[in-house]
Structures are given as structure tokens and as C-alpha cells.
């Protein structure tokens, strides 16, 4: 049964609130808007707590769970819903209060007030999720693009080069970066694509813009968008990034393909540093696959699943 508070109210809508996300100035406004609508409000107390709260929401028969925070909070809520086998029965909502809010932007949810309006009356759509090993994700799984590179990358560079900006900055920031020695094997509609060698990075994206302005995956087609960036001198990386960004095509050192499942192996036996929706993960053999339309989300009026619809 759904949770009942002391006044006898039934809560079939939960809000998982991260009080420290972004500038941390959102708490009172989010609480007020959620309370007006009868949400059960649960505040996180640290990393991993949103996973537990989402699991509790499923056990309490909630039919909507909203994540108020950034992309990290959203991923924790997704993991909790999945762990409790709640994806078939629970709709996921997003109240963006983080720094980047990439996923919220992808589904046309910008701002707190707009988010609650979408939760109230917005369209519900079923979208794909990815799984890396046993970890579900909505945005991306990337390798070779470190947290330091992400922090150091300027907004201007991200805007100009999209996902490749992280690779450019990573090379500029790390003098001892010697590339990833990887073997990528991908399958799409029965056809196999394979790439092996030294790379600056490999990006596996599920949503349209899985790295700031970079990406362009269809989130409802059951396929990842995979980008492999070969190791190259920094000056050449800038030129390659510009060509790839402007013409949206493969270049000499940038390879792009789609896949419903893929494997990333380390060729030198050293574990690879991955980032799964921003969360670190180390592995020398990682298997990824899509789960088509496994997640129901509340989307804004201008949401488009397919990049070609722009």
C-alpha cells in the first residue's frame, strides 16, 4: 500500500530531494511546490542515499518518483527503482537543481517551476536506458575522459566542440596521458563493428546530448551512439573536433557508430577508468547493452527523441 502520513493522506508521489546539489539555494522552493501537490518529501543525507529512498518508494507503491537534484541524484534514483524492480510501475520525474542538468535539458525540463508543471500535466514517454555491467544509466558511459578534464573544460570549448571538448582538454591538462589501449566490439541489428587501438576516449551515449552539446543519440530507438576518438597530437585533435562538430560525420581519427550492445576490453590488462552518468567505475572488461523503452519519464512539450527531428 502507499504510505500514509499522520493526517491520513496517501502518498503515491514521492520527491527525493538532494539539498546540496547545484548552488543549494533551491530547497525551500522545491519543498513548497512539492508540499502543495501532496508529495512525500524525502531528503538525501549523502552519496547513495537516493538509491535507498527510491527503493523505499517502490516498496510503498509509489507511482511517481521525482528526483530533485543533478544528474548524479537522478542516476541514484534510477538505480534504486531498478534494484526494486519498479521500472514497469513507476514514472520517473526530474526537478533540475544541479549544475549541468544534462538529462533534464534532454527531456525539455528547465527550471523548478516548469519541472512541477511537467510533473502535473506533461506527457509520459517510455525511453531507453543503458546498462554497463550491472549498472543502469540514462545518459552515457565514457572512458578516457577524466573528472579533471570535465572540470577543466571551459563552457566555450564545450559549446564549440561538444563531447570532443573533454578529450581535447584532457590531453592539454595531463602531460602524462598516453591514451587508452582498448578493443571495442559492437553489435547493431546483427552487424558487428570492431575497433582496436590507442584512443583518447570512447563515449557511449543513450540520450541526444550525452555530453553538453555533444552526442545526438535517439533515446527511443534501442541503440547507443558510440564515438571512438583515436590518439593523436593535440593540434590535430582540435582540427578533428571542429570538423566532426560542424559536419556531424566521421573524420580520420573520429569514428561513430550505433550499437544495441558492445564490449570494451583493455588491451594492456590495466583497468579502464569509466564514468557512468558521472559515477566512476574501473574495469578491464565491460559489457554494455540497451534496455529499449524500459523507463517511463515525464517530458516537456518540446521534447524530441530523435535528433533528426530538429
TrEMBL record:
Q: Name one GO molecular function term.
A: ATP binding
Q: Does the keyword Cell wall biogenesis/degradation apply?
A: no
Q: Keywords on this record? A: ATP-binding, Kinase, Nucleotide-binding, Transferase
Its domain of life reads: Archaea
Annotated ranges, domain DAGKc: 8-135
Give the InterPro entries listed for this entry: ATP-NAD_kinase_N, Diacylglycerol_kinase_cat_dom, Lipid_Phosphate_FormReg, NAD/diacylglycerol_kinase_sf, YegS/DAGK_C
Q: Which Gene3D superfamilies match?
A: 2.60.200.40, Probable inorganic polyphosphate/atp-NAD kinase, domain 1
Is Kinase one of the keywords UniProt gives this record? yes
Any single Gene Ontology cellular-component annotation: plasma membrane
Q: What is this protein called?
A: DAGKc domain-containing protein
This chain's source organism reads Halogranum salarium B-1
The opening ranks of the lineage are: Archaea, Methanobacteriati, Methanobacteriota, Stenosarchaea group, Halobacteria
